[in-house]
Amino acid sequence: MNFKNIFKNTSSMNTENTEIDQELEETILENNANEEQAIVEELSVEEQLTQDLAKEKDKYLRLFAEFENYKRRTVKERIELFKTANQEVISAMLPVLDDFDRAITEITKSADESVLKGVELIHEKLKSTLVAKGLEVVDINVGDVFNADFAEAITQIPAASDNMKGKIVDILEKGYKLGEKIIRFPKVVIGQ
After folding, report:
1. Which of 53, 66, 111, 120 is most buried, most CB within 10 Å of its CB?
2. Sign of the CA dihedral 149, 152, 158, 160?
3. Does the pTM exceed 0.70?
4. SS (H, E, C) 18-60
């Protein structure tokens, strides 16, 4: 072997080694780039999952709040329904109560004490039963200032004095409320 051949062989080996080294470096760089890209992709996937989780939590909280509002609303409606469920029956009984009031007034004029006590007993029984179901008399008196929110004016008459102008002069029919709702307004006469 001569020196040229050795040099050629060494030179070609060096060239091959350099090429191998370059390929190895390129492969390492490529692997590092792929790993970095995978890390970046992992972070973006992780970030994406975090965002998705936050969206789902928000959706869940909104749905839960909406359901809680629905429950409160239905409970409130149910309570209102129970309060006014008897409204039609009680409203139908009001004329009977009025008749008892008129009967007691007329029986009081007569001298028959036992009839008066019997009618008063039945009247009180009916009245206490209706009160137990939530019926209340609308509190309004002669001399009160007229308020259209709580009474119905049937007519106006000239006031006996200046201080009775715009005030209730007479109550023709009692008013009743069931809970907080007025089911029959009192009918009144006001001074003009």
Report:
1. 120
2. negative
3. no
4. HHHHHHHHHHHHHHHHHHHHHHHHHHHHHHHHHHHHHHHHHHH
